[in-house]
Amino acid sequence: MGYLECYDLFVQAAQQEKDWADYLFRDGSMIGLNKDILCQYVEYITNIRMQAVGLDLPFQTRSNPIPWINTWLVSDNVQVAPQEVEVSSYLVGQIDAEVDTDDLSNFQL
Q1: Distance CA 44, CA 38 (A)
Q2: 57 lies in a domain?
Q3: What is the rounded average pLDDT of the residues 63-79?
Q4: Per the domain annotation, does 20 fall within a domain?
Q5: Is 68 a domain residue?
Q6: Which are the contacts of 13, defined by CB distance < 8 A and separation ≥ 6?
Q7: CA atoms 52, 58, 9, 3: torsion sign
Q8: Cα 108 to chain center, whole Å?
Q9: How many domains does the chain fold into?
């Protein structure tokens, strides 16, 4: 795949996301988020992804228009109750990796 094909693929995907934003906000906006802000975010994140793979940036949006969204997108920032996840610190010493051939002596195929 050539440079222009990759570039066009990113731009087309961004346009599809903007079309989706238009659909989502067809009946109005909500506090802190509307179609224009979401479209700016799509442009911002598309620029970041394109820069990461060495493509030119197609959009003027250079800063995150909704920085508060990172709180929800980065899972490390979300506090989870221990009963809702498997906490790896509770599993220390739970696995015995040493297997002796005598352990398998009664095993039949």
Answers
A1: 10
A2: yes
A3: 80
A4: yes
A5: yes
A6: 46
A7: negative
A8: 46
A9: 1
User: Would you list the DSSP string of 34-80?
Assistant: -HHHHHHHHHHHHHHHHHHTTPPP--S--S-S-GGGHHHH-GGGS--
**Is a pLDDT exceeding 80 seen at residue 6?**
yes
pLDDT at 37 (0 to 100): 96
Question: Which residues fall within 8 angstroms of residue 86, CB to CB, at 6 or more apart?
Answer: none
Q: Structure pTM?
A: 0.67
Mean pLDDT of the chain: 86
Scanning the structure block, which residue is given the tokens 């003027």?
60
DSSP state of 8: H
Range(s) of the domain holding residue 43: 3-77
pLDDT at 58 (0 to 100): 96
| pLDDT confidence of residue 38 | 96
Task: Look at residue 94 in the predicted model and tell me its pLDDT.
Answer: 63
Nearest CA among 42, 47, 44 for reference residue 19: 42
Q: Which two tokens stand for residue 33?
A: 């988020």
- Report yes or no: 88 and 95 within 8 Å, Cβ to Cβ: no
Residue 15 scores a pLDDT above 70: yes
